[in-house]
Amino acid sequence: MKKQPVILVDMDDVLAEFTEEWLRRYNEDYDDTITAEVFDGWDAVKSVKPECGVNILDYFKAPGIYRHLKPKAGSQAVMQELIDLGADVMIVTDSPMGCTFGGQDWKGSNPTDDKRAWLMEHFPMIPVENVIVARKKWFVIGDVLIDDKPATIEKFQEMNRKIIAMEMPYNRKTPARLRAKTWEDVREILLREFYPELEVAVGSNG
After folding, report:
1. What is the fold, at CATH topology level, of the domain defined by 6-17+70-201?
2. Domain spans of the chain?
3. pLDDT tens-digit readout, 158-188
4. What is the per-residue DSSP string for 128-174?
5. CB 149 within 8 A of CB 42
């Protein structure tokens, strides 16, 4: 019997349109109009208004932010197809610390639970026990990772591990042997790498 691949998949800006919602909130709060195209690398602080500065990072733990993201176009169909083919799909995502209880002034956030709830809503085909929270993703065993973070892309390639870089403005200068702009690109790479017998179907996606 053929060994099925273990496919590791990041969430933010891979399965979910995180930066879109992040900047929508920032633009509304700071009367700005930036898009992700202004990012020339991973450091968002230098791309926002000075009065915002490092506060741009506070949105990562804003209550409910991870519950209001749109799935990336095509991601749900490709995830379902991979699972139907027998692949083991694992979500490997970093998650910021939430707020702790603080009496009447508590403004609670639990990013990890919000991420799990979002995945259960939009990707019910992936069991919740297949969700791993980790920053150092290179410690997670799998045949390939799909990710957008420049440092993670670089680390996997240094270790000669397979990674597909999901292209975003901030990682365009990061060299990557495998790169995808869309989930159709991801699908074609994965079918070519792990299901060559189905290569005739590449590009059809249904």
Report:
1. Rossmann fold (3.40.50)
2. 6-17+70-201
3. 999 999 999 999 999 999 999 999 999 999 9
4. GGGEEE-S-GGGS--SEEEE--HHHHHHHHHTT--EEEE--GGGTTS
5. yes
